[in-house]
Every structure is written in structure tokens, then in C-alpha cells.
Amino acid sequence: MAGPTLMHCLLAVSLLSSVAHAQLSTTFYSRSCPSMENTVWAVMKHAVVKDRRMGASLLRLFFHDCFVQGCDGSVLLDAGSEKAAGPNANSLRGFEVIDAIKARVEAACPGVVSCADILALAARDGTFL
């Protein structure tokens, strides 16, 4: 039997692309952790009242997390730390705010919300506040 032709390959790719597609959703946590966005907002509001630059600091933290290899929360890790890496050492702020948000979200919805999503929402809310 002859090997796959170009037509077979194109047909396979078109079928797979129509079946496998991911959609981002702003309501992803609406069922699994409905209080998450309000929790992030409340902690961010308190943090910005305490330090007006915190919104900008968290946006910068979000940028450093997402810029190289995508938004994975790696900048938040303590072990093998990106926190202490050359460009980040003593220049990034807001880790304690993310830790406070994570603690409150974990109390409400244990093991549901990722640190990367918390950082993204905190950066979003920080730019608005």
C-alpha cells in the first residue's frame, strides 16, 4: 500500500483541527470557585490602598512571569527560585499580595485555582484600581 499522500495529510489535519480546539473563558471558575474573583478584588483593593504602586508592581510581576515561556506562575515559586534570579532579585514586588490572595482563595476553594490565574487576575484588578 502506498504511503499517505498530501491529500490524506491535509484531510487528517483539517479533521483534527475542527475537533480539537481550546476556548478561553472568562467564566471558567464560575462553578468551581464562584467567590474567587471577588476575593482577588477585595485583597487587591486593600493592597492598593496600603501602597498605591502595588497595581503597577503586580502588572510588572505578571509581565516577568509571562514574557519568556508563557504564564505559568514560575516567577512565584520559592524553590529553584526565579525570584532570586539576576534580573528579578530585589526588583520585583508584590509576592506577599499574591500569597495573601492565594491563602484566601485556598480557604474558599482548596486546590482549584492556579497561582498563574491568581497573578493574572491580580494584575488585571491592579490596573483598574
From TrEMBL:
The keyword Heme applies. Keywords: Calcium, Disulfide bond, Heme, Hydrogen peroxide, Iron, Metal-binding, Oxidoreductase, Peroxidase, Signal. One of its GO terms (molecular function) is metal ion binding. The active site is at residue 64. The keyword Heme applies. The record marks 60 as: Transition state stabilizer. It comes from the Eukaryota. InterPro entries: Haem_peroxidase, Haem_peroxidase_sf, Peroxidase_pln, Peroxidases_AS. Binds 2 calcium ions per subunit. PROSITE patterns: PEROXIDASE_2 (PS00436), PEROXIDASE_4 (PS50873). Its cofactor is Ca(2+); heme b. Ca(2+) binds at residues 65, 68, 70, 72, 74, 82. GO terms for biological process: hydrogen peroxide catabolic process; response to oxidative stress. Disulfide bonds join 33-109, 66-71. Residues 1-22 form the signal peptide. Residues 23-129 form the Plant heme peroxidase family profile domain. It catalyses: 2 a phenolic donor + H2O2 = 2 a phenolic radical donor + 2 H2O. Belongs to the peroxidase family. PANTHER family: PEROXIDASE, PEROXIDASE 72-RELATED. This is Plant heme peroxidase family profile domain-containing protein.
